[in-house]
Amino acid sequence: MPTSGESRPHIVLLPSAGMGHLVPFGRLAVALSSSHGCDVSMATAVPTVSAAESRHLEALFVAYPSVRRLDLQLAPLDESRFPGADPFFLRFEAMRRSLPSLLGPLVAGASASALVTDIALSSVVIPVARDLGLPCHVLFTASAAMLSFCAHFPAYLDANSAGSGGGMGDVDVPGVYRIPKSSIPQALHDPNHLFTQQFVANGRGLVHAAGVLVNTFDGLEPEAVAALRDGAVAAGFPPVFAVGPLRPVTFPTTDEPEGKKKDYYYMEWLDAQPARSVVYVSFGSRKALSRDQMLELAAGLEASGHRFLWVVKGAVVDKDDAEGLADLLGGEEFLDRVKPRALVTKAWVEQEAVLRHAAVGAFVSHCGWNSVTEAARSGVPVLAWPRFGDQRVNAGVVARAGLGKWVEGWSWEGEDGVVTAEEVAEKIKSVMADDDGAKKAARVRNAAEAATAEGGSSYRNLAEFVGRCRGA
């Protein structure tokens, strides 16, 4: 908190689309406003891509009125130019094209003293902010390992001519470790992919940022954080602030008992289960499993013999997810058989609360970075099953840190093969019976708590960032 007489910097946060981006920006906004003496505004593009984003933003601004909302009305994007593109990548592109004209009036109207933008927007936002005389930091919403890959990837392309048809290989990130070809996000194997063009431009632009905040902590990714700070990854890289795991924000529940019962039925179900007896299964907000894989997962969960809470996702964008549970899972028979020991839902759950519940003993996760940091804060062992994007890199972090296990041979999006029910059941049994793994995950939790406590490394790093904004 600022001492008496110190100014309060006004920091404008500019996230991109998707819950994986909005959630950490919301957590950063609350931390800056509530614990570090800042005035904070958050700019968001409306309408959102998904209903989950809209609900999250509405709840955030109601619960934390000190965080001001700035709505961005984007210019129309001709989506026909990008046939078959991921809807979230399209939103990135629409924002990137609109922000050069929108950013000046936005920050002038807000009287901003500093700007924090999303990595997906950084290469267009940083130059505009510089012309406005405004310090611009980047919040990297994934792992430090992925940040190091992003910073090095343009140099890799330049050296290997991969961008002109030379083909993608393993990438040795200086000072960090090798990212195998099989773990590189699928889109980056195509130099003409919309996401590849965005990713490379953002990687090249990072060196011009005033600093980079990353939602991790020293104890989780020591090699990557040190290499970024020391300049081993990229010459002239700006200061790096490991500020994670960012603490979750809590939203008040309704005063109506029936509403509370409806909204938090899964917590009541967990309350009735023995300690460390439940397997929590969620593959995040961005991708849905294929029908064949979903049926194998269902059979594997049933065959494991363990209790489970499974959050099912049936479409990329939740607004398009119209099928019922029974339709997705091949009929009512499965739900009837597992009902005594399982809760299966398509509804949104407060994942942090689930993971911190004493009944949860393991987390079958796609390893989106928010999920990894929440597992780290909770000390719940992870069975990593990455599906898309940076998730194999994140799964590698999970395995190196001792937070869980990763079966590297399990397929992900775009690869042939389905992981069988037998394999799923075997690995779930293994993780649930692994007392040593549980102890390792608990040590990660202790390190996360120490980092984020007042005086801890992540707390100090965020305070240093605020000091720079105050000085600016």
Short description:
With 472 residues, this protein is an alpha/beta fold. It has helices at residues 19-35, 51-63, 87-110, 122-131, 144-160, 194-205, 222-230, 257-263, 265-271, 291-304, 325-328, 332-338, 351-355, 369-378, 391-401, 421-432, 435-452, 457-471; strands spanning 10-14, 39-45, 67-72, 114-118, 136-140, 171-172, 178-179, 211-214, 240-242, 278-282, 307-311, 342-345, 360-365, 382-384, 404-406.
What best-fitting shape do the alpha-carbon axes yield? globular
Q: How much is the average pLDDT?
A: 91
Cα radius of gyration in angstroms: 22 Å
Instruction: List low-confidence stretches.
Output: 1-5, 254-261
Class from helix and strand fractions:
alpha/beta
**Strand numbers in spatial order across the main sheet:** 3-2-1-4-5-8-9
Give a short account of the largest sheet.
Answer: 7 strands, parallel
From the N-terminal CA to the C-terminal CA, the straight-line distance is 17 Å
Question: DSSP strand (E) fraction?
Answer: 5-15%
Strand tally: 15
Approximate helicity band? 40-55%
H/I helix tally = 18
